[in-house]
Design goal:
CATH architecture of the largest domain: 3-Layer(bba) Sandwich
Strand order of the largest sheet: 3-2-1-7-18
CATH topology of the largest domain: FAD/NAD(P)-binding domain
CATH superfamily of the largest domain: FAD/NAD(P)-binding domain
Shape: elongated
Order of helices and strands: EHEHHEEEEEEHEHEHEHEEEEEEEH
Distance between the termini: 16 Å
Structural class: alpha/beta
CATH class of the largest domain: Alpha Beta
Radius of gyration: 21 Å
Strand content: 25-35%
Oligomer: single chain
Helix content: 10-25%
Largest sheet: 5 strands, parallel
Number of helices: 8
Number of strands: 18
Length: about 300
């Protein structure tokens, strides 16, 4: 039986594995179907990770993590976990090939993925001018004009964040009204360099070999096309939480989740089910930064060691 089953091989899962095995747990397996490192490996430039002076790619940043995190006995099983159940004090981890393993504790660190808006050019220019993280990439557009697509709390909050860095932010939304809280909307409207471009559909984002050079939007009532010449487009139309392993046969979740499917945890990364923990972007109120995910993993591991006693 495993002391700890870690589901996910990003910064949260890797760090949890390091702290758990170095802290004395003997049977710890991390389930990750593909290459470890998480979503950050797809980023072209990272310059805000503490202690990393040079600007590096996400792949370069994560290159040494697996070896270090496996140094104390963490095992990596290249398999996808399809379901986690619990009977008594024991968890059963079922993988995609139908095999099962029992574990005394489980950490879910599967993360979440940005929801795609589906407009023309989104796939082609993703990572080359199209971003889903203002904190990560906003600095690259310092003093420039950018566009942001979305109308929820996250979108408006990120628009305000970008307004402090960029010369102008076009807030593009398909409706005349926003889904954000009134206080968030008021805060956004107070920013003089945010221009609201509402009741429009994104026709396409276009560019050249260097990346994005602009986007075209179409007014939903009049059909007019407006061309916004910007080098950066930020998309905030929601995230899909990768919580599938927690879904039970009856359609419920193994532990409490919120309306967006994010796992509800406390400050110790504990869920509503004893022995089940969640860390990184899969949990509520995640900052969606590598350093924060790693901190979550360390926090979870320390408390799992205490839980196992």
């Amino acid at each position: 039986m495993l002391d700890l089953a870690i589901i996910g091989g990003g910064p949260a899962g890797l760090t949890a594995g390091l702290y758990a095995t170095r802290g004395g747990l003997k049977n710890v397996t991390m389930f990750e179907m593909g290459m470890t490192g998480g979503q950050i490996t797809g980023s072209s430039e990272i310059e805000n990770y503490p202690g990393q002076g040079a600007i590096v790619s996400g792949m370069d940043l994560m290159q040494s993590w697996p070896e270090q995190c496996q140094r104390f006995g963490l095992k990596h099983e290249m398999n996808q976990v399809s379901k986690v159940t619990k009977s008594g004090d024991v968890f059963t981890v079922t993988t995609a090939d139908g095999k099962t393993q029992e574990a005394k504790s489980v950490l879910l660190a599967t993360g979440s993925v940005p929801r795609r808006a589906g407009f023309k050019g989104e796939k082609e220019f993703f990572g080359r001018g199209i971003s889903t993280c203002a904190t990560c990439d906003g600095f690259f557009y310092k003093g420039k004009e950018v566009a942001l697509i979305g109308g929820g709390d996250s979108a408006l909050e990120e628009a305000v964040y970008l307004s402090k860095i960029c010369s102008k932010v076009y807030l593009v939304h398909r409706r005349d009204t926003y889904r954000a809280a009134p206080s968030t909307i008021e805060h956004m409207k107070a920013c003089e360099n945010i221009e609201e471009v509402t009741n429009v559909m994104v026709e396409e984002v276009y560019g050249d070999a260097s990346g994005v050079t602009g986007l075209k939007v179409k007014n939903r009532d009049r059909g007019e096309i407006r061309d916004l010449a910007v080098p950066g487009v930020f998309v905030f139309v929601g995230r899909d939480v990768l919580n599938e392993p927690l879904k039970q046969d009856d359609g419920t979740f193994l532990c409490d989740v919120n309306d967006q499917g994010e796992v509800i945890v406390d400050l110790r990364m504990r869920t509503s089910v004893p022995g089940l923990y969640a860390a990184g972007d899969v949990r509520i109120e995640a900052a969606k930064q590598v350093v924060c995910a790693a901190g979550d993993g360390a926090t979870a591991a320390v408390n799992i060691i205490e839980y196992l006693g």
